[in-house]
Amino acid sequence: MQVVHNIADLQAVLAGASLRAFVPTMGNLHQGHLDLIQMARQQVDARAKSGGKTVASIFVNRLQFAPHEDFDAYPRTLENDCALLEANGCDVVFAPAEKDLYPEPQVFKVHPPTEVADILEGEFRPGFFVGVSTVVHKLFNIVQPNLAVFGKKDYQQLMVIRRMVTQMALPIDILGGETRRAADGLALSSRNGYLSESERLEAVQLSWALKTLAAAAREGSANGHLDVPALEAAAMQSLKERGWQPDYLTVRLQHDLSPINGPCQQPMVVLGAAKLGKTRLIDNLEV
Ligand code: PAF
User: Fold this and answer.
1) Does domain 190-286 have CATH number 3.30.470.20?
2) Ligand 1 atom nearest 132 alpha carbon
3) Helix (H, G, I), strand (E, B) or coil at 273
4) pLDDT digits (tens, 9 = 90+) for 100-137
5) CATH code of the region 2-177
6) Could you confirm whether 33 is annotated as catalytic?
7) Ligand 1 centroid to 237 CA: how many Å?
């Protein structure tokens, strides 16, 4: 595996690659990321006879953090990440310094449309999807992948990237990897590392609240009585009573994350974001 830190070196290492499968990350990797790397590896092995490369990027992207958020605290664990990537079939790691990716202030940005970027995560993290779309578009230009893999854990992010790729006619297949969970059901996330021991025990309640909400949405759609606002309010209240500060727990259409007003026969997804102590967690379940 080769580890490169600037664009020129990356392009030299990738020259002549018959297929490029890309997994963008911010590092501090866990099994959820490694599942995505393995998916990328399988795609390379299946699609390219030889000469295909699996590429991961590790870059904590300042553009997607608000000033009060955890950009400085975000764990940087490059050496360990590289060992994990190598053991999971990655060929090339691109770990640029900030000055390599943003040699000058990034004033040209990708602004996704309000209806996908200003709801849910975008409502509570204004500018987040501008930062994500801008860095992902830039990384796509640099890596020139044939396919890229993103986790469904960041469900809205995956949808925004898919829309960007379609609208910009980028010749990249976007694949979504399933959320990896700990034995108790907590979705793996680099931010789980911020939790204290007692918060870690409590953290699984977010996925349980979503499971209850998903079951109620399924049942209500089947029997023709689905009061979504009442179910959402009950889910929020159940977490509040346990000391959480929920931003949203909601039932949406899978394809565009638009709200649901009654019984629904289309694929749904329940999504939630809530703070436990100082740590903000997100999760979702397809219904
Ligand atoms: O999901 C992430 O880790 C980040 O949002 C991404 C896609 C690497 C962009 O910085």
Assistant:
1) no
2) 9
3) strand
4) 999 999 999 999 999 999 999 999 999 999 999 999 99
5) 3.40.50.620
6) yes
7) 30
